[in-house]
Amino acid sequence: MSEQQLVRREKLAKLQAQGRDPFAMLTWNQSHHSVEIKQNFEQLENKDVSVAGRIMSFRDIGKAAFIDLQDRDGRIQLYLNAEQLGPEQYAEIKTWDVGDIVGAEGYVFRTKRGEISVHAKRLVLLTKALEPLPEKFHGLKDPEIRYRRRYLDLIMSPEVMETFKKRTLIIRAIREFLDNRGYIEVETPILSTIASGAAARPFVTKSNALNLQLYLRIATELYLKRCIVGGMERVYDMGKNFRNEGIDIRHNPEFTMIELYEAYTDYKGMMELCENLVAYAAQKVCGATKLSYQGTEIDFTPPWRRLTMSDAVKEYGGIDFSSVRTNEEAQALAKEKGFEHELKKKLKDCTKGDILNAAFEFYAEEHLIQPTFIMDYPTEISPLTKQKPGDPTMTERFEAFVYGREIGNAYSELNDPIVQLDRFTQQSKERELGDDEAYQLDEDFVASLEVGMPPTGGLGIGIDRIIMFLTDAYSIRDVILFPTMKPNS
RNA sequence: GGGCCGUUAGCUCAGCUGGUAGAGCAGCAGACUCUUAAUCUGCGGGUCGGAGGUUCGAUCCCUCCACGGCUCACCA
How far apart are CA A226 and CA A453, in angstroms? Predict the structure, then answer.
């Protein structure tokens, strides 16, 4: 234990010995918060207020002192005067430390230097901090401590507090947007015997009661579609998904996703919904639909650009896939252009669709800075999507890209149970070819389609990624309060 | 998983060519009745991430390990 921690424990022990244990304090009535006092100074001047918060700095100038008190919203200065507080209480207050949590009553005034402050008449130590705070000027820099001990980060960095407040507002705005359109929010299982609905490795866990291996969900899709079958018409689930994959600046093993499904519309309906939903949240929380992200202006104002995958590859890679007829032709093209290393399977096992998708990722993705819908994905990589009328090799699917990153994925939902079963069978073959992320067959889901699912549009949006754009966050860890970390010892 | 970088006082950081460590803030003691990175005087505080190795001698050089950051791969 550090010298400073020992000193604080001694101070605590002394208070406890005097029967004034700060940890025995129960309540404090906060009549006002810091920022509120500053904003309503004219009405509050000379009026009594009661505030509470953490001591962030203590400037002792002899028989007077100034405390910067930090609460939920910001800081307010307290003015302390030895004469008014009495020598005994004033002497005790001088033993309090930066980091301690106090309540203060007094009247609002402006100091000679113009700082709106509370002239304290009564101060109470509500909690003793036994550990000193990070340095007041430089703040907390060490990224490891910031993520592991986020509470320190929140105390020391107002912009971090701001980001997480915005996170809540963004999520609230999204719910509001959907609720206004007649959507029902539902909760689908996190624990399931089959992890399906997306291409990702799941986390595995075990039920003791059922003596059964279970998976944490990787998507909510198949359950939400069951809700559509059940007649809910418009549903969404916003919550955590879990994918047992790599961790980087855009990926955390647990992340927040919204999936929504709307009967009697298709992927074009979802396109409008997607751009309007994001624009709504941006307008509501940031006050604008044109935002700066990492120094680049991003314009979320609808309508967003629409481009087919094939056209994107033509535009950014100069390759015209519309003239490619066979898998063999596509394989030769991949080899010739030198992007066959982008393929996840052996070249000879790749279809034209696999190769088109790889070409898209290789040539086009990074250029999609402004919000763009990439439409019409190959059937073989879209096992839950309806085919395009007149072209069974392609599906009615889009992904939304911003700043070269995928933020959303949507389909005209496949509702033909016979075709769906066939697609799952294809996925099983992919699994046999070594793709351990191929979609797993969910028999009850297919059975639900046999009961009949109306034509439906569905959309999934990565909430953390939206929040990154709306808060100008560089890393996904900056928008997740407690990102996944290894234990540190 | 690969590559690069980092880990020194509670925090932010210095530390040269190898001679067992410094500053600022914070802390402690004192002065100061309008300060706001308050100021002034004095003092204390270190398993230099861990384990080995080289060396007369290692914070420094080498190896391994741990954790973290960036990046590539993986990943919607």
Answer: 8
